[in-house]
Design goal:
- The structure holds 2 protein chains of 2 kinds.
- Chain A is mainly β.
- Helices cover 9% and strands 30% of the residues of chain A.
- A 5-stranded mixed beta sheet of chain A has the order 2-1-5-3-4, with no helix packed on it.
- Chain A is globular.
- Chain B has a 6-stranded mixed beta sheet with strand order 2-1-6-3-4-5. In chain B, strands 8-7-12-9-10-11 form a 6-stranded mixed beta sheet. A 3-stranded antiparallel beta sheet of chain B has the order 13-14-15.
- Classes of the chains: A mainly beta, B alpha+beta.
- At the A-B interface, strand 4 of A face helix 7 and helix 8 of B.
């Protein structure tokens, strides 16, 4: 299945901002985090299709996965 | 900080200056001071631009001390924008300097004579109020240059631009930063118009020969401050993200979360978001030799501000904040950071709230005055404000007024104040704050975004109504208390997540004043402030029916999540059940 992965802020440094990945079925968010070489401890916020999600979520065809370190402002 | 400076402006005759003991205002600072003075001394039914309104300028309880992050100044009055009580606060140097001068508040009363413009100079030897009509209709930058030439390179300067002189409802009050530039504004609620109505153009604060305020218990203060600093540095938000990317780091996440109001609140996702994001801004400033990491006042250890330069490396403005980038950016369909920085500079110079001004321009776009995405058109509108043309004055009057003039139905305001950069339909916790805050729509009054989107202080699903009222209530109470301390509100990120950092803050206050406050006492202070503000508003004619969002937020669903604002009116009325 095809999934779009987006990395933000410090997570994108030395990696990429956005990339389409071809994944096997039953791939979790954590699997993708490991696959793209991000330390899961650095991931504070996980969105799938614009909704908060978690490491154990099973990705679906055409999902958009967005990963953020701790961020804030306002 | 053991005295209050009162300056009474008079229709005829010289202003009268008096210095008083604190009396019943002893121990108050920041928002607690401004709101208590306004609640006690300003008739709630007065006209905000009239002689009975007062402008109260107060450093926080910890300002002027060695405590990190303590440089916020509160400016209060009855608001010409909302008609409610108002506390608008700013960074920059003014709070620290005013506190070192020993003033817990400056209270400006009465009304100017309509022809003379005054400057107020304060140093250790006293206060001098004098006419300076050479400042008339100057922007903040030119005003500051003149004051620097007259009073030197070390003073802190508070001033208004043309918007304040014209008494426009979106007029701000500028405070100079560490570089002596007028970039840090008490933006919201038209406080600049009240200063203009008093006939005061600028206040120059000189703390030469003075040192930091001394704590009652110096050792305990030092230890608590060390723990506090450690807590701020170890939290991911204040230790890493804010210094690296500034507040504009929020653009991408709000966009990803579908909560970024675009084209005057039509969708929650802006195609051009990445082009105006904090990441892009930091990259650009590093490449151009600007400064992506910078403090707005001495003693700031978060360093979320920055200096924005053009492609030749020349200064344009301070790094525009997230809400500014949004108001002039996605809200208006503009995806050009350089143009947004120019708009930020113009707002700062003319003395306008970037949120109310940007939202007004977006509403004007919706009304057909110009097209969405027309950055040059937006710049031209600000030139109109600067010149004081009738059209410019309408823009400087904020979204509600320009919306009425142009016959626009979709006007995102509460109590006349523009809703900022988080859509109520997909960030429902902060929406409850917009609806119920004593200030009109104000994200800083109870930043539900932290828990809805950023997972700070727990998590409450931003798309659901459940839990938002409790979240907003607790945040509004905590925020009112923080606003009294003079602490930057961004300390909320670590203190919400780290109990030891919250305790360190309470210990700093206790060591400074020789008190034994607990966390409950801090919450009680927040409740006391909110209750006084709410009571003022009630007497000014506000009812629970004013604690509502514009109805389109309940009726029109917001893509991409297709949600509406569905917290019931009955639940909104429970926010102040404490």
């Amino acid at each position: 299945m095809r999934v779009k992965v987006k990395l933000f802020a410090t997570l994108a440094k030395g990696r990429f901002g956005e990339r389409g990945l071809e994944l096997n079925a039953s791939t979790t968010v954590l699997d993708v985090v490991n696959l793209v070489g991000v330390d899961s401890n650095d991931v504070a916020l996980i969105f799938v299709n614009g909704r908060h999600s978690s490491f154990d979520y099973l990705l679906q065809e055409d999902d958009r996965l967005s990963l953020f370190p701790p961020i804030g402002g306002g | 900080m053991d005295k209050i400076l009162r300056i009474k402006m008079q229709g005829s005759g010289d202003p009268v200056v008096s210095v008083e003991n604190l009396g019943e205002y002893a121990g108050l600072g920041g928002r607690a001071m401004t709101s208590m003075v306004v609640a006690k001394e300003v008739p709630p039914d007065c006209h905000p631009l009239g002689a009975k309104n007062k402008l109260v300028i107060a450093p926080g309880m910890l300002s002027g001390t060695a405590a990190a992050m303590s440089g916020r100044i509160s400016i209060g009055c009855k608001s010409p924008l909302t008609g409610t009580i108002k506390e608008s606060n700013a960074g920059g140097q003014a709070a620290q300097v005013l506190a070192r001068l020993g003033y817990a508040a400056i209270i400006i009363e009465g009304k100017g004579n309509g022809k003379d413009l005054y400057k107020i100079f304060i140093n250790k030897d006293g206060v001098k109020v004098s006419v300076d009509n050479g400042l008339k209709m100057l922007g903040n930058y030119a005003t500051v240059e003149k004051m620097k030439a007259e009073f030197g390179e070390k003073v802190a300067i508070i001033s208004i631009g043309q918007a304040g002189e014209m008494k426009l409802p979106a007029a701000s009050i500028a405070c100079t930063d560490m570089e002596q530039r007028p970039t840090r504004h008490a933006g919201r609620g038209g406080v600049g118009a009240v200063m203009g109505a008093k006939g005061v153009k600028t206040i120059i604060l000189d703390d030469a020969g003075l040192s930091n305020r001394k704590p009652v218990d110096e050792q305990k203060f030092r230890e608590a401050n060390r723990e506090f600093v450690n807590g701020i540095r170890k939290h991911g938000v204040t230790g890493q993200a804010l210094p690296a990317y500034g507040t504009n780091v929020l653009t991408n996440i709000l966009n990803e979360a579908g909560g970024y109001p675009t084209h005057n609140f039509r969708t929650g996702f802006f195609e051009g978001g990445a082009k105006i994001s904090g990441e892009e801004q930091a990259r650009l400033m590093t490449e151009r030799g600007g400064q992506p990491t910078h403090g707005c006042h001495r003693g700031c250890i978060i360093q979320c501000s920055g200096i924005y330069v053009d492609k030749n490396g020349n200064y344009i403005s301070k790094q525009p904040e997230y809400e500014t980038v949004w108001a002039h950016g996605g809200h208006c369909g503009i995806d050009d950071l350089d143009k947004i920085a120019v708009l930020d500079r113009m707002d700062d110079d003319i003395g306008l709230d970037t949120i109310d001004t940007g939202v007004a321009i977006g509403v004007a776009m919706d009304g057909g005055l110009l097209s969405f995405g027309d950055a040059d058109g937006a710049i031209n509108l600000l030139k109109e404000v600067e010149k004081g043309t009738p059209l410019g004055r309408l823009i400087g009057s904020g979204a509600e007024i320009i919306g009425k003039v142009l016959g626009v139905e979709r006007v995102p305001v509460v109590k006349g104040q523009a809703i900022p950069a988080y859509d109520p339909r997909s960030v429902k916790g902060v929406a409850v704050t917009y609806a119920t805050s004593t200030m009109g729509a104000d994200h800083t009054a109870g930043y539900g975004v932290a828990t809805n989107i950023l997972k700070v202080g727990g998590f409450v699903d931003p798309l659901k109504g459940e839990g938002q009222v409790d979240l907003s209530r607790n945040l509004q109470i905590a925020t009112a208390a923080i606003d009294a301390t003079g602490m930057c509100l961004f300390i909320a990120f670590p203190i919400l997540d780290q109990p030891e950092t919250f305790n360190a803050l309470v210990d700093i206050i206790n060591a400074m004043y020789g008190l034994n406050l607990t966390g409950d006492d801090v919450a009680a202070l927040g409740k006391k402030i909110l209750s006084a503000e709410r009571d003022f508003n009630k007497k000014a004619g506000f009812t629970k029916e004013h604690d509502r969002l514009p109805t389109f937020f309940k009726e029109e669903s917001l893509p991409p999540h297709n949600t509406v604002f569905d917290v019931t009116d009955e639940d909104l009325d429970k926010v102040y059940n404490f």
